[in-house]
Amino acid sequence: MHRRPTAPPPPSPDPPAPRRTATRVAAGLAVCSVLLLTLVAARWHPLLALDGGLSRTTHRWAVHYRGVTEVFRVLTDWVWDPLTMRLACAAAAVWLIWRRAAWWTALWLAVTCAVAAIVQQSVKAAVDRPRPAWRDPVDTAHYAAFPSGHAMTATLVCGLLLWLLHRCGPGRVLWRTAVAAALVSVAGVGVTRVWLGVHWPSDVLGGWLFGALLAALAVIVYEWPRGRRPELPPRRRG
């Protein structure tokens, strides 16, 4: 009597594409973030020299071009300020609950922003990097320098809101407008912080890296299997 060969067990399904991509991105960002953090904490001379040269140049420009400096102060204090960015996330959370009844997504968004604020202040306290000091400052700021809280918050918020918008299936014009606004905001907040002399360039780079890393980790958490359909399925196009 011949036995039928037993079929091999089915292979375990691969993780969904968004989670798989976010995991790879997060791994790369984690390596870059840790490397930069190590160089800043170790006071690596080539990095300090590069920071000093760039900061001295932009400070001369800030003192000379007062009109540009005043515009940058308005942008950094009111448009790209971390509080403004967090209020944008709060407004998005309210919209998610009101229009989509997406309670889990709104909670995920709020918790991510709260965790980011804790991480930001913890890294600042651990590294305790002094801010640039000038004889003729054009602006002031508090707390330690690394990483830039403005750059980190803008990167995180813009990344999360873009990702949520993409899941909702926006039209081409809306999507391109949102991407352009996000890019201008993230790049612009970095330029203004260095121009105003309150951050070293590597502080801004660290803020970008940490913000993007937290955004990628948040996507991984959101995409983790929870035994139910997602709250924000992509909109079908007819």
From TrEMBL:
Chain spans, region Disordered: 1-20
Extent of Pro residues compositional bias: 1-18
Presence of keyword Membrane: yes
SUPFAM superfamilies: Acid phosphatase/Vanadium-dependent haloperoxidase
Enzyme class label: hydrolase
Residue span(s) of domain Phosphatidic acid phosphatase type 2/haloperoxidase: 106-219
Entry superkingdom: Bacteria
A Pfam family recorded for this sequence: PAP2
UniProt keyword annotation of Methyltransferase present: no
Keyword list, A-Z: Hydrolase, Membrane, Transmembrane, Transmembrane helix
Gene3D superfamilies attached to this UniProt entry: Phosphatidic acid phosphatase type 2/haloperoxidase
Annotated InterPro entries: PAP2/HPO (IPR000326), PAP2/HPO_sf (IPR036938)
Its EC number(s): 3.6.1.27
GO molecular function list: undecaprenyl-diphosphatase activity
Membrane-crossing residue ranges in chain numbering: 21-44, 78-98, 105-123, 143-165, 177-196, 208-225
Listed PANTHER family: AT30094P (PTHR14969:SF13), SPHINGOSINE-1-PHOSPHATE PHOSPHOHYDROLASE (PTHR14969)
Protein name: Undecaprenyl-diphosphatase
Organism: Streptomyces echinatus
